[in-house]
Amino acid sequence: MSSNQELVELQDTLYHSKNPTRRWLHCSRKAWLFDKITEYSPQTAQFSALEVGPGSGIYLPHLAQYYQQLMVVDIEPAYLERAQSLQNKFPHLQVQIDDMTGSSLPSSSFDFILCTEVVEHTLKSAEMIQQMARLLKPGGVLLLSTPQPYSLLELTAKIAFLPGIIQLVRWIYKEPIIKTGHINLMREKVLKQQIQAAQLSIIESHKTGFYIPVLAELTGEWGLSIEQYLARRLYNTVLEGGLWTQYYVLQKEKMKQ
Q1: Quick check: is 57 in a domain?
Q2: What is the pLDDT of residues 95-134, one digit of tens each?
Q3: How many angstroms separate the first and last alpha carbons of the chain?
Q4: What is the DSSP letter of 37?
Q5: What is the tens place of the pLDDT at every residue in 14-27?
Q6: Domain residues for 33?
């Protein structure tokens, strides 16, 4: 299997994993983002949206309900091919290769941008956020999510993907497991500095997801219930940096009358 195919297969697996914790971590993120897409999308379809880095395309059908003009961009052909496979169902979906660290798209083109689990894959996250801010129309919304560097999941991953250990992890999960490609995990403070530099306002923020190694792999639903309880207790405390995903609803300043 090619590395491109592995990427798409991994994305598909995450939301249907046989492991309760793995499934919950990704589905809870999807649920939160679905809610925010609904909440911040306009009541009329006469608006435009962009998804940066679509993965398996899990969010595209939801976005297509709200936007008459919908574009998806990526630098990874496998993800763009998956998005193209949805064009028969959603003919208003446009697919384009584009590097968001230096986008070729025109300024003030979109009312809404979704960028979930992308900025951690580039060392140029600040440039990417600035580009997305440039592409937003005044008053437009950027929905952004990315992992936290000191979550137990990310810390454990540094060990899990070591030679020899990754084979054991694959044997335990019996599902596609490949390296995360996370090269730029940012603390909340650092990410907020990049958001501020792009002149975006934080309208809303949130954090979800908690993982306990071994417990997640060996205890199934019982272990998941403990992780869910701890996730609720850690949120909005000094220990919330241990939660996996941070989310931001950002807005570009509206034009002054």
Answers
A1: yes
A2: 999 999 999 999 999 999 999 999 999 999 999 999 999 9
A3: 56
A4: H
A5: 888 899 999 999 99
A6: 3-252
